[in-house]
């Protein structure tokens, strides 16, 4: 199984998330998911097409998403992205989502919609 | 005349909850003198209340205190911030106090946070949880320290926790860091190969001591400078005017 076939836009419409940047890139498939706030760890563990749940709002999350080719980032727990993060995500066409749900809760909901770690 | 000064710019006193009770400013200064350490920064977590006692204790010991603090950013990365003057550090402390959370320290779990004088007398205990992230992020904090005339050094970047690299993966471009600190686990010559984003940043080594044994045995940096001031240290880190920093 796994998340192949789940389109990012299907997740954003099914979940209480706000699409902050990359609204024109929601037609891509989501291949897996990962949750961590240590970017050094994310860089080693997440892969292309993953959706990544984090509480880290620093601009480096955009660089990590770019580098790995992630499908998108979910900022959980009501964390507001830094302004530079938003600007950079906009510029680089990265899908950045925010949610009031906790990291645990949003991860669980993604899992229940068929997203798996590979 | 330029000469070598042995320096330790990252030492915790009894104000840090995790430090041993022997880490009073007077005791640290005494051991610095006994070990030919001439430049010292007392860098407690998010607080600077014991720096003044270090100044007083160091007055007749031939040791220079650089006013400093170890700050925890919103991203949970640690930074050593250093200033030329105590007045600047006090201004910085006000910024830190505004950006601190409201949690209280649990002495049983984390240890007590003692403010002492230069004769090791207990003055008071800080009730707030000092070992916690501020609400301000790395970019904002580095900008503010710079605007006050201070410098930022990323703490123990090779450690798996509380380091800018563990939290953020790599050093963001354009961040106002004067140097990075590596722990004794990493050899300076291996640093850039292991962490390419350090390229071009000067490297320092400090004890990050929480006990006197760590302070004596821990790594140090030798600055080849004319006099023990922050301005000279900055020149050494930048390799200007014949100054240099040796790790």
Name of the CATH superfamily of chain A? HprK N-terminal domain-like
What is the percentage of strand-forming residues of chain B? 15-25%
Order of helices and strands of chain A: HEEHEHEHEH
CATH C-level name of chain A: Alpha Beta
Low-confidence parts of chain B: none
CATH architecture of chain B: Alpha-Beta Barrel
| Morphology of chain A | globular
Spatial strand order of the main sheet of chain A: 1-5-4-3-2
Would you report the number of β strands of chain B? 12
How confident overall, as mean pLDDT of chain B?
A: 96
Number of helices in the DSSP assignment of chain A: 5
Would you tell me which CATH topology of chain B applies? Answer: TIM Barrel
Q: Summarize the largest interface: chains and residue counts.
A: A-B, 16 and 13 residues
CATH superfamily of chain B: Metal-dependent hydrolases
pLDDT averaged over residues of chain A:
94
Give the low-pLDDT segments of chain A: none
Q: State the name of the first-level CATH class of chain B.
A: Alpha Beta
Radius of gyration of chain B: 17 Å
Shape of chain B: globular
